[in-house]
Automatic annotation (TrEMBL):
It comes from Croceivirga thetidis. Transmembrane segments: none annotated. InterPro entries: Acyl_CoA_acyltransferase (IPR016181), GNAT_dom (IPR000182), NAT_camello-type (IPR050769). This is GNAT family N-acetyltransferase. The keyword Hydrolase does not apply. Gene3D superfamilies: 3.40.630.30. Residues 15-156 form the N-acetyltransferase domain. Keywords: Transferase. Pfam families: Acetyltransf_1. It comes from the Bacteria.
Length: 156
């Protein structure tokens, strides 16, 4: 695990951000309009609006990504989104490191809550979110057809 390094997004990681996410989305679901917006324009859709993206590197190669998207919602400050890990790096703790890094970024900018949407078919992801301190909530409107679970983490 020593060789995994978490770094801030830069433009040269744009293709990896899209590819890593598109890979898991298309494996289980279909790409949706909101996916395309975030994956094709991460700077405009995420970073320029006050969000962050972190990238996991294995020997300088991007193998994981995770975004923190600024929300315009009275209950939630940010959304943890677009987390993906390349199959070659799965089982190495990459998702946990990405999640911890994104939560730390949220804490550092004063966030009180982080929201996420997922699907219960993604059992390893749901287990990871619980390990990171997220709990299930219900009733939030979502643009994603595939969303069947919503979670929140309160930051102290």
């Amino acid at each position: 695990m020593e060789q995994i390094q978490i770094v801030d997004f830069k433009d040269s990681y744009s293709a990896a951000f899209k590819t890593i996410n598109q890979e898991w989305i298309e494996q289980y679901f279909e790409m949706e309009e909101m996916d395309r917006k975030a994956l094709e324009h991460p700077k405009e859709y995420i970073l320029d609006k006050g969000g962050h993206i972190v990238v996991a590197l294995l020997d300088d190669e991007p193998v994981g990504v995770c975004a923190l998207i600024k929300m315009n919602h009275p209950e939630f400050d940010f959304e943890l989104a677009k987390m993906g890990v390349s199959p070659k790096a799965q089982g190495m703790g990459v998702g946990y490191k990405l999640g911890k890094s994104i939560i730390e970024k949220a804490q550092n900018i004063g966030a009180k809550t982080i929201y996420l949407e997922s699907n219960t078919i993604l059992k390893p992801a749901i287990n990871l979110y619980r390990k990171l301190g997220f709990t299930e909530i219900k009733g939030i409107e979502t643009p994603y057809q595939r969303c069947d679970i919503q979670m929140i983490k309160y930051i102290s």
